[in-house]
UniProtKB/TrEMBL annotation:
UniProt-recorded name of the protein: Transposase
InterPro entries for the chain: Transpos_ISL3 (IPR047951), Transposase_DDE (IPR002560), Transposase_Znf (IPR029261)
Organism of this sequence: Corynebacterium stationis
Domain Transposase IS204/IS1001/IS1096/IS1165 zinc-finger residues, every copy: 44-84
Occurrences of domain Transposase IS204/IS1001/IS1096/IS1165 DDE (ranges): 164-315
Cross-referenced PANTHER family: TRANSPOSASE FOR INSERTION SEQUENCE ELEMENT IS1557 (PTHR33498:SF1)
Pfam families: DDE_Tnp_ISL3, Zn_ribbon_ISL3
C-alpha cells in the first residue's frame, strides 16, 4: 500500500518509522488525536497462513510518544479479513502492526521512551506517566517488562561472571501487605574483584531471604554458569552459605568487607559493654570513659583526630 498521508506531518511525528501514514489529526483536549493508515500489512491468516478475503476496516487505538507536551493517541485503520480455508480455527482476523505487539495498547517506541526517561533522564514514574497520559502502574509495568526482556533475552548476560555477591534488602516495611518484605539481591562482582574502583553489576532480585530463594535462582541457571562461579561473597547468614554450598560446591565462600567490619564492630561493642558492667555494675553513663568513647572505638585509626587518639590512649 502506498502512503496517502501528509508527508510533512509524517516527518514531524515520525510515523513513517511506525509503518503508518497520517490521514488526519485533531485536538482532543488533554490529548492529541492522530488518525493513520497502515502503509504495510499482510492479508494472510495467522493460523493457516492462507490469503483471506477483505471484509471491512477496524480501528486500533494506540498510545504513542507525546507531541509538544501533550499525550498522543493513535487511531490506526486496519483492514479485516475473512479466512476461506475450511476447518480453519480463525474465521475473521485483522492485520497486525510492526510498531506494537498484538493486543498491546502502547507502541514499542513509547515503551523505549519510558525506559530512557527513567534510566537516563532520571524522571519519576509519575512524571513519565503524566507525559503519556497513562497510569503509574502501567508505566512501571512496561518499564519492568522491557528490562526483563533486555536482560533475560540476552544470551551473553551471564558470560564472564566468576564472582557473585549475595545479600538481602528490606524493600518493604508494610508487613501487613508484603509480609517480611525482604528480597535477595545477586550482583556480579567480577570486575570489582579485580579492581575495587569498578562497580558491581546487578544480576537479579529474588523475592524472599532464605536458602530456598538463592537455591532456586542458582538451580535455574545453566550448569556452565554454576561451574564458572569461583567466589561467592555474602554476609554471615547461614541460609545463603547452605544454598551456595549445595549448588556451587567448587566455589569459595567468603564474607564481604562490609559485614566483616560490622561483625568486628559488634564484637568490640559487646566487649566494651561487658567491661562496663564488670567495673561499674551498671550500663554506661554520659561521663563514663568507656561509654563516652563508644563511637571513637569504632572509628578507623586514620580518621582519628589527635584529641580522639589521646582519649583512646587513656582507656
Amino acid at each position: 500500500m502506498h502512503s496517502t498521508g501528509n508527508i510533512i506531518a509524517d516527518t514531524i511525528c515520525r510515523t513513517a518509522e511506525l509503518g503508518l501514514a497520517i490521514t488526519g489529526a485533531s485536538d482532543a483536549g488533554e490529548f492529541t488525536l492522530i488518525k493513520a493508515d497502515a502503509t504495510a500489512y499482510s492479508d494472510r491468516c495467522p493460523d493457516c497462513d492462507n490469503t483471506g478475503v477483505f471484509r471491512d476496516h477496524v480501528y486500533r487505538k494506540l498510545i504513542d510518544l507525546p507531541i509538544v507536551g501533550f499525550p498522543t493517541r493513535l487511531h490506526v485503520r486496519l483492514p479485516r479479513y475473512r479466512c476461506t480455508t475450511p476447518n480453519c480455527r480463525v474465521k475473521y482476523y485483522q492485520s497486525q502492526l510492526a510498531c506494537a505487539a498484538p493486543g498491546k495498547k502502547v507502541t514499542h517506541r513509547a515503551t523505549r521512551w519510558i525506559l530512557q526517561r527513567l534510566a537516563i533522564d532520571r524522571m519519576s514514574i509519575s512524571a513519565t506517566a503524566k507525559s503519556l497520559g497513562i497510569g503509574w502502574d502501567l508505566t512501571c509495568q512496561l518499564a519492568l517488562d522491557m528490562c526483563r526482556e533486555l536482560i533475560y533475552n540476552d544470551p551473553t548476560h551471564l558470560d564472564g561472571v566468576h564472582v557473585i555477591g549475595v545479600d538481602e534488602h528490606k524493600w518493604s516495611h508494610n508487613r501487613a501487605k508484603h509480609g517480611a518484605g525482604y528480597v535477595t539481591v545477586i550482583v556480579d562482582m567480577t570486575s570489582h574483584h579485580r579492581d575495587s574502583a569498578s562497580p558491581a553489576r546487578l544480576l537479579d532480585v529474588v523475592e524472599g531471604r532464605s536458602a530456598d530463594a538463592l537455591r532456586m535462582w542458582l538451580a535455574r541457571r545453566s550448569p556452565a554458569f554454576r561451574h564458572q562461579v569461583r567466589i561467592v561473597a555474602m554476609d554471615g547468614f547461614q541460609g545463603y552459605a547452605t544454598a551456595s554450598k549445595e549448588l556451587l560446591p567448587t566455589a569459595r565462600r567468603v564474607m564481604d568487607p562490609f559485614h566483616v567490619v560490622r561483625l568486628a564492630g559488634d564484637k568490640l561493642t559487646a566487649c566494651r559493654q561487658r567491661l562496663q558492667r564488670e567495673k561499674y555494675h551498671r550500663r554506661g553513663l554520659r561521663d563514663d570513659p568507656l561509654y563516652k568513647n563508644r563511637k571513637t572505638l569504632l572509628t578507623t585509626q586514620q580518621w582519628l583526630s589527635d584529641k580522639q587518639q589521646a582519649r583512646l590512649d587513656q582507656l
